[in-house]
Amino acid sequence: MSDDRNENLGTEEEDDEGQPAPTPFDNPFFLPVLLGAFALWCAWDIITDAPAYQDHPWFNIGGLVLGGLAALYFTWSAVKEKRAEREKSPD
Fold first, then answer.
1. Total-model pTM
2. Of 32, 19, 16, nearest in space to 81 by CA
3. Alpha-carbon distance 82 to 85, whole Å?
4. Can you give the pLDDT at residue 5?
5. Residues 52-89 as b or e (16 or more Cβ within 10 Å = b)
6. Is 49 left (phi over 0), alpha (psi -120 to 50) or beta?
7. Can you tell me whether residue 7 is helix, strand or coil?
8. Which residues are CB-contacts of 22 (< 8 A; sequence separation ≥ 6)?
9. CA–CA separation, 58 and 75 (whole Å)
């Protein structure tokens, strides 16, 4: 019994094709969702005039602009990647 456990230590699970099993981090939309949530959080502080915005207004403004632009860029990249993947698949 202990020999079986020792053999499986350090090995990754593999799917039917011999590739490592995908994780949520492999999804191309993971980063755009996080960046969009950050931009929305900064926007919410600006809209509600939160104490964080009153103390550090340029952080929230910069976070909204940079986070929003980065979210748009990575969303566009993820859409292109999914389209290329769909065209490549033999359906």
1. 0.72
2. 32
3. 5
4. 55
5. ebeeeeeebeebbeebbebbeebbeebeeeeeeeeeee
6. left
7. helix
8. 15
9. 25
